[in-house]
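Problem 12. The chain below contains 184 residues. Write out its predicted structure in token notation.
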Amino acid sequence: MSKTALLVGMTCSFPLVLVITVLVLRSDLVRPAPAAGPRASSQTVEDRPRRRPPPVRRPLRAVPEGLEERQASPALVVPQPGKNTTPVTPDPAVIRDLAALRQDLTQQRAGLARDRDALLTALSQALAGMPAASAARELGALDDDSVVQTLRPLAPGLRRQILDQLPAERAQRLQRLLPSEPPG
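Solution.
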């Protein structure tokens, strides 16, 4: 047997095994299309393939599951005109959950800000070795705050060369945001 025939056989065998596996595991893919209109069938109810029930659509819940049990009183009372309302009595468990969520989000935001600062510092170092036109093209996709943070550590001469390559209106706006001398 030649190497070519062996290679062709191995190449064709994988898709064939894959198709057979899918057909065996997912027999619902092989169902015939329904006929147009009613038709008599010789199959009994027991002989017909069973269909999965359609997924149950549950309405979106405004309150997470399990929270109702923890609430002894409503967390918020919406005042209605002309009716006496009871004062708002927040649930301590809900307040703890919200405080924990706020703390988690604050930590994630701080981590993302550190990562962004590190990326912009690396970009600034890379721009220092590029021609001004290339550096301006790279900065064109960034927002003004990111451009300012990227250009701030560069030497004033290089910064001016890069700003000269940007559109005049944006260059003026960025120049106003940048300090006259780099820090350090």
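Discussion. Helices lie at 3-25, 67-70, 92-128, 132-139, 144-151, 156-165, 168-177. Students who got a different answer should revisit the alignment rule from Section 12.3.
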